[in-house]
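Posted in: Protein Modeling Q&A

I'm a second-year student putting together a small comparison for a lab meeting, and my supervisor asked me to include a predicted structure for DUF3761 domain-containing protein. I've never done this before, so apologies if this is the wrong subforum. The sequence is pasted below exactly as I got it from our records. If anyone can share the structure token output, I'd also love a short note on what stands out.
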Amino acid sequence: MRARLAAPAVAVAMAAVFFGAPNASAATLPSTNTSHHCSHHTTGLCGWTHHQKPRDRYETAKCTDASVSYSQHSQGTCSHHHGVRYWFK
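Accepted answer (user: helix_wrangler)
Welcome! Here is the predicted structure, written out as tokens:
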């Protein structure tokens, strides 16, 4: 009985090795904001700490004038909108 159950278990384990998810590299990581923490910046507050959520997963900051930013880098974010109010990255 054990011999009959062992063979399918080994087959399932081997299939998981061959068909498992590939290791994530920088090229395969999503370009969307999926983190729930803020990096340290000189301006603005962490949106997650202040119970603020982004409108969608691409939003990285909310400006002081209530406009949103999708900037990939923190430098210059909301510079024409009176600065950053909340960060989401």
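A couple of things worth pointing out for your meeting: The radius of gyration is 22 Å. The chain has one helix and four strands.
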